[in-house]
Amino acid sequence: EKGGYEHFMLKEMYEQPKAITDTFSPRLKNGDIVIDELGMSDGDIREIRKIMIVACGSAYHTGVTGKYVFEGLARIPVEVDLASEFRYRDPILDEGTLVVVISQSGETADSLAALREAKARGRRVLGIVNVVGSSIAREADNVMYTWAGPEIAVATTKAYSCQLIALYLLAMKFAKVRGMISESELEEMITELKKIPAQVEMLLNNKDRIQKFANRYLAAKNIFFIGRGIDYAISLEGSLKLKEISYIHSEAYAAGELKHGTISLIEDGTLVTALVTQEELYKKTISNIVEVKTRGAFVMAVTNTGNTDVEKAADYVVYIPKTNKYFANSLAIIPLQLFGYYVSVGRGCDVDKPRNLAKSVTVE
Ligand code: F6R
């Protein structure tokens, strides 16, 4: 059942190119993005005044990425909240707010309760869900399925990657309908989107190099992930992937926030993983790399091919192919998934079933 792979997690990581393709292909038609299941006319899309994204865990992390993508591309204000917070905070949901609930299982108790809360307040809820016919899929006004197929490993990989794709498609569609991007810009983005599966495949095939590197950190006490903008969102997920399956303490920080406290935790040899995929932020993040290196950190950077400035500052560099800036998460997460996986394997942890965790969290 693991198809020759040692763990479901590795198998599912390798299923990502296909899962990503399956998620975008049915929605690309004649150079346009068609999401019939959205149930929204172009007029409805133009009337959206705010998007409220609600989810838990990794799905929340895709929501954080979604905020940057929707705001950057479609210029729609986005708020992202954890479902367990949203449901109890008497949220303000004005007319014109589209609520998006993201969930792999479609059964997460807090996410389902958040959906019900939004519906009770008369708002339209769009579910981005993987499990067909699940509670969130049934109760949402509209469902956009991620076609990742069954995910067994507790640590999500392919469903996460498909959630990102669903968010890109939505943001591109909204941007186009609202006149924020031109026909040719959309065309260019679609061309880049279609390249993602092969790029992911290539990054997965780099696994031996990541494993070798991971083996150097099996006894680490603390590992940090830093980045700005979308790179911060990637950091959140990279950190969760590592800590949930390896039990090594890890934190994700917005790179500029580090000096407001956390930098005191950096010691000689502490591993800091820096995400540097957003060109307009290169210089700012590189200065944070220099800051932590001055305090003794060892820096692994994930950056775009050709960004040689990072090579001068960091100790170890993993390159990802150049893509549209809004899609960088889909590529940069691959080495981080592999890193978490191999640290967990190297430490002899139960990779697919980490202690204390359940695949579907149906209790609050
Ligand atoms: C982490 C992970 C969890 C889930 C979270 C939400 O690898 O899998 O953080 O993302 O429990 O689950 P779903 O998406 O089923 O609502």
Task: Walk me through what this model shows.
With 364 residues, the protein is α/β, with parallel strands linked by helices. It contains 14 helices and twelve strands. It has a five-stranded parallel beta sheet with strand order 4-3-5-6-7, with helices on both faces. It has a five-stranded parallel beta sheet with strand order 9-8-10-11-12, with helices on both faces. It has a two-stranded antiparallel sheet with strand order 1-2. The model has no long low-confidence stretch (mean pLDDT 97). The structure holds fructose -6-phosphate. The site of fructose -6-phosphate (F6R) has 15 residues, from helix 4 and helix 11. Its main location: cytoplasm. The active site is at residue 359.
Brief synopsis:
Helix content is 45%, strand content 17%.
State the shape. globular
Overall pLDDT score: 97
Give the helix level as a range of percent. Answer: 40-55%
Number of helices: 14
Strand adjacency order, main sheet: 4-3-5-6-7
- Could you list the spans in which at least 5 consecutive residues all have pLDDT below 50? none
Give the distinct bound molecules. fructose -6-phosphate
Strand content: 15-25%
What would you report as the Rg, rounded to the nearest angstrom? 20 Å
Termini separation comes to 31 Å
Tell me the number of strands: 12
Order of helices and strands: HHEEHEHEHEHEHEHHHEHEEHEHEH
Structural class, by secondary structure, is alpha/beta
Largest sheet: 5 strands, parallel
